Amino acid sequence: MQRRCALHPAANGYPRHAVAGFRYNGHRGESKTARAAPRGSESRSDEYDQIMPHSSKRITAITRRKLVDSISLSGLSWSGRLDEPSFLGRIYDLSALPSTDTRYRDAAGDIWQHRVNNPYDWEDDWVFTDSRFGLMHGDDEVLLVFLAEMLHPVVRTDETETALYLKAFNDALSRDGYELYASDWISGHAIYGWRRLDAFHGTSPELRLSERPLTDPDVLQEHLNRIRAGLVSDPPAAISSCKNLIESLFKIILDRSDVEYSHSADVPELYRKVADLLALNAEAVPESVRASQTSQRILRTLVTTINSLSELRNALGIGHGQSRRSEALARHARLALNATVTVAEFVLDTWQVRLESGALEIGDPQ
Description:
Layout: E1 2-3, E2 8-9, E3 15-16, E4 23-25, E5 31-33, H1 44-51, H2 61-74, H3 84-89, H4 107-117, H5 126-129, H6 140-150, H7 159-173, E6 178-186, E7 189-196, H8 218-230, H9 235-256, H10 267-277, H11 289-316, H12 330-357
Antiparallel strand pairs: 1-7, 2-3, 4-5, 6-7
Helix pairs in contact: 2-7, 8-9, 9-10, 9-11, 9-12, 10-11, 11-12
């Protein structure tokens, strides 16, 4: 599910959100309109809860703290080249939020006084703990819009800074199933939106490599890291890494049992040798003929998946020195990722069971 930052136009033509009258799309696409909190509430948290009812909070407190720390430690201003009231005014309707200073009638007044007129009154990271803005305890979308706005070319013109923040944000957000991505372009600069990571295995597939009988799990972990890095930014490379992970896994299993194979063997050929070694046959489910037959059909589908993954890599990956740009999209990379993790998990699990039961022995690593 994807979200663009722009929910309604501001006077300058760029995206703007408002908390009072904050209009946003829920995860199922429904539109909701919230009302400003009444003055005199006992706590800012209560006010925000009234501003943003029915919030979705998949992003944990741990992730939020990690995001705030990454911003603070970067030494860069979260408002970029804009002053803080101007930045926040692109996201929130500051005139609808209450003031924390009785001399001013709204948030616009007290922020200007304490961060522009007297910039040292408040800490630089004050906004993250000010519950009027809901960044630590509010709806996911409020935080995501804030982060995406930090990367907007009107806010931040240094592409090195943008890349630094984007990596830090996505490293943290991916744990909770989100990512920021370039949803549009303006004058050659990316405008970022956010979306849920809808791949079944997300961007951080867990094969529990450290728990497997692998002498060097880093070999496979490197492939996983490349897949994660390229899933959105470089789908062809991610697809190729999926194929390479499966190929490496099969060779590791065959090498540990001293099974010979040709150096030119392709993935389907390597799988057939692994299937023979691990006894992936019609007796896969003991004492159940019907279940064994069903398992056999699933295994045949698995072989087809292996073949298809190799073909997908040749058609959309970066192999064989193609003369034209790959047409691979992020959804193709996710398809390859899901197929790869399914195959790898099944083979690793079966290999481990065979070793633990004594049905298969492995030699010392070369």
